[in-house]
Amino acid sequence: MNGKQKLELTWIGKENRPRLEPRILLEDPDKSYHARHRVKMGSREDAKARSLNTHFVAASEASPETVIGDIFDNRLIFGDNLLALKALEAEFAGKVKCVFIDPPYNTGSAFTHYDDGVEHSIWLSLMRDRLEIIRRLLSDDGSLWITIDDNEAHYLKVLCDEVFGRSCFIASNIWQKRYSRENREAIGDAHDYVLLYAKQRERFKVIRNRVPITEEQAKIYKNTNNHHRGRWRGIPMTAQGYRPNQMYEIVAPGGAIHRPPEGRCWSMIEPEFRKLLEAGRIYFGKDNNSQPNVIRFLDEVEGFVPWTWWPHDEVGHTDEAKKEMHALFGKANAFITPKPERLLRRVLHIATNPGDLILDSFAGSGTTGAVAHKMGRRWIMVELGEHCHTHIIPRLKKVIDGEDPGGITKAVNWAGGGGFRYYRLAPSLLEKDKWDNWVINKTYNAAMLAEALCKLEGFTYAPSDSVYWQHGTSTEHDFIYITTASLTHEQLQQLSDEVGPERSLLVLCTAFRGRGEYSNLTVKKIPKQVLSRCEWGHDDYSLQVENLPQAPAVEPAETKASPQARQLSLFREVSREGAKPRRKDKT
Ligand SMILES: C[S@@+](CC[C@H](N)C(=O)[O-])C[C@H]1O[C@@H](n2cnc3c(N)ncnc32)[C@H](O)[C@@H]1O
Fold first, then answer.
1. What pLDDT shows up at residue 526?
2. Is the Cα torsion angle 564, 568, 569, 574 positive or negative in sign?
3. Of 45, 243, 322, 507, which is least surrounded by CB within 10 A?
């Protein structure tokens, strides 16, 4: 056989790829929210003070070296996440340190706030399109974490291998989501997976944080001799084997002489031992005559290398998450599939440091943003369900006002502060007129048009206050000017003179009558210039209609939605008040 063979998961419709329009985001200041005053000073002293209060928060969560003030520039985006991810790409490619997503698991359940069940190939296509952009958004030391269960976990793993490369797979962590037994199935379901991929495997290994030890694990550290450095434990000073320079005699202060036990040697050479002895770091027991132990102080403990077993007592369970919801929204109004804040804390702790940027494009009730906020990370969340307004905004307002005592608040000493901006996706830049021609959308004003065309042409939108033709830049010398005017030769000549020989200008206008060449100008007509760039007027990427399977012949309407109905609503919010899970809860 010739050439290399490639193992590939394939499905009907895999080759169909959306040609996404890079939309602009429109802020709605009425829905944005900021603390009334600064809570944190952002000074080194302040960060240090907080780190001292949080002994069991690992150093990286509140490091004295990190100056973290209130963070105001977080983003909540209301809309479909595929278009939202595309909208973020120009500004955030390579800048996101951690993406956490908790997508619909494709369980076949209908939840109150969204539906969760489509044909597997459609689910895979929906995920693939999103994962590809997510990968581009990640920084070189960034990582992607996905919660998922047995319904799609193994297909998703193969899909992620394809998008990221198999070598970027780090772990399939097991989250013990239940503490009580599940007896409804043949084998009770007690865990979800937390799939982890890194943009660059080796970089991730260097930057990832260890898991801090808990108070329970720290119990063995005591301060029996009132040492000024606080709690410590004795570590036996022996190692396996025979190393001649580690076989010396040790005389305890009480006079007892110690040699390494049979088959073992001391764990260090004599000069090292002497140094520790002088520094008061060797303990010979209460009687000052026992075998030597090295003193290890609690404040030296680095934490554990994370492992794939995530038990509920360390990172919470679904019941805990539900209680967090009840405390925030009341029982009647609770979001049905939240994740516990402690689970997110573990993820964000391992993958990020204060100030890093986190993204969750399936935000649900906003757990990721709430936890990121409390941990001093920057965040972006995307949610298309109405619960973006009924749950996420009120939840984050409470966090900002310091009025959410639940979740991880106490553990990280959260007191409030910061804020977020609320955005929605702009409508498509082009729309059809009554003669079926693409024209510029009537709802676009001059600023929106300029920003949208900058994005399409790969320019950074940066309108100048003083120079009317500078709407954006791509390099120091290259500018873009966008106008709905029809430009005359005189106007173009004047532009060319102002731009001068050292700079270039891309001019996008609805029409022009030029004469001759303007060496520093490239003049193009809109919308003709951008017509073939992408799909226009496409607002819903939550399904691909051409992939829909045939409807089954008979299906009682009230009890079970047809596959089409379910497919129509996967990855898209449906307001089906009162719909309850038909099968066991996803989480
Ligand atoms: C399992 S929930 C996430 C729960 C979340 N981790 C929490 O703790 O609350 C999945 C969320 O993804 C949202 N979603 C599904 N498709 C989406 C899409 N195309 N764009 C944006 N959000 C989407 C659903 O509305 C739902 O809120």
1. 95
2. negative
3. 45
- 275 φ/ψ sector (left φ>0, alpha ψ -120 to 50, else beta): alpha
DSSP string, 38-50: ------HHHHHHH
Atom of ligand 1 nearest to the CA of 382: 21
Domain boundaries, the chain: 25-212+305-425, 222-300, 430-530
The C-alpha atoms of residue 62 and residue 68 are separated, in whole angstroms, by 9
Chain position carrying tokens 């108070």: 215
418 alpha carbon – ligand 1 mean position (Å): 24
- Distance between CA atoms of residues 426 and 452, nearest Å: 9
Question: 19 pLDDT exceeds 70?
Answer: yes
Q: Which residues contact 215 (CB under 8 A, 6 or more apart)?
A: 56
In the structure, which protein residues have their CB atom closer than 6 angstroms to any atom of ligand 1?
80-81, 102, 104, 113-114, 335, 337-339, 362, 364-365, 367, 382-385, 542, 571-573
From the list 440, 362, 417, 347, the residue with the least C-alpha distance to 105 is 362
Distance 68 CA to ligand 1 centre (A): 29
- Report pLDDT for 50: 41
pLDDT value for 108: 75
- pLDDT-derived band at 109 (thresholds 50, 70, 90) equals low
CA distances from 83 to 272, 380, 446 (A): 61, 14, 22
Q: What is the pLDDT of residues 487-536, one digit of tens each?
A: 999 999 999 999 999 999 999 999 999 887 899 999 999 999 999 999 99
Q: Which residues pair with 473 in a beta bridge?
A: 460, 479
Q: Which of 432, 400, 439, 408 is nearest to 527 (CA)?
A: 439
Tokens of 519: 């060496």
Q: Which atom of ligand 1 is nearest to the CA of 81?
A: 20
Atom of ligand 1 nearest to the CA of 80: 20
pLDDT band at 70 (very low <50, low <70, confident <90, very high): confident
Nearest CA to ligand 1 atom 4: 364
pTM of the model: 0.84
CA distance 410 to 405: 7
CA of 364 to the centre of ligand 1 (A): 4
For the ranges 24-28, 52-56, 276-280, 436-440, the lowest mean pLDDT is seen at: 52-56
Site to probe by mutation for ligand 1, drawn from 149, 384, 391, 425 as the one with most ligand atoms within 8 Å of Cβ, is 384
Cβ neighbours around 165 below 10 Å, total? 14
363 CA distance to ligand 1 middle (Å): 5
CATH code that applies to domain 25-212+305-425: 3.40.50.150
CA atoms within 13 A on the CB side of 321: 28
Which atom number of ligand 1 is nearest to the Cα of residue 103?
10
Q: Among candidates 401, 458, 391, 455, which has minimal Cα distance to 425?
A: 455
So what's the pLDDT on residue 516? Answer: 72
d(Cα 341, Cα 406) in Å, to the nearest integer? 9
Q: What is the CA radius of gyration of the chain?
A: 30
Strand partners, 236: 293
